[in-house]
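Quick start: read one record
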Amino acid sequence: MLQTFEAVQTVWREGRATFGAAPRQLVFGQTYEDPRIELRAFPPKSRVFCIAGAGFTAHALAAAGHRVTAVDINAAQLDYARVLNDGDPPRAGVAERVLAAGRRWGALCGWTREKLEAFVNLESCSEQVTYWDRELDTPMWRASADTLLAPWLLRLCYRGPFVAALPPGFGARIRRRLRRGWASHGNRSNPFAALLMLGKPIGCAHAPALPIRFVCADAAEFLEGCAPGSFDAFALSNLGDGSSREYLRRLAVAMKRATSPDAAVVWRSFAEPPSEMIANSIGGGIVNCAAADRSLLWGVVGACRVRDLRDGGLPCCIC
């Protein structure tokens, strides 16, 4: 009965939530999340529950001295995160192949390799915005991005619950988020700029200070089995995107049980932030740090304390 409940409630099981990936297929070879957000939000030497994904966030946290438990429901994804942490080079997953196809489409819109190389080597935000507006944000690119990110086309690659959770006008929203990023972060010192525009992979810079514990499990089920007070912080990626309200409620209850009210929580969502979220630095209440995330794609990068979680689950996650 529990297995059936999980299969219905969380769409991330075995990689099938996104890209229509086959069971046990590697979905993400890279992590499209800036770990600086978590590093800023979490107290030093925290015991961190982290969604494993490609493993880069878990690695960055462990390298900073946190004691990390990396959990993922997709066994292939977890195995990849483990070997990457052991020093293996990154490799492409389904997400990277989809992005590569998008870059090939971009070439048809005039995005030559020379233009992209010049762009990612800029460091002045004002120059980046000027270059973007003049050379890259063309009418053909805007029309192509809006078409490629339209729900009817996304459903050819993504599973239904995930696509249904995306906000209206997703293509235009992603374009605005990219421009916001060019205006906020220097490309030359931002590895996510080269990752998105050129497909240049980000590697794990150095060995973590502490070993990472890897666990293949559903997030809520795992936390339900943990002793009270097991964790000081939670890095949840965008687990809430496409998950049901029932699952998010279950997850929030399990988190509150497994930690103290002061524990820090960071999560992401492709949603637009609702009015009650404050775009601000981390320091109290529920804040949206999306503009500070150098990976450029998110509408919500939420940060709060466990005590701020609503009874219905994570605030501002689309479900």
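Strands lie at 47-51, 67-72, 213-216, 231-235, 259-269, 278-279, 287-288, 300-305.
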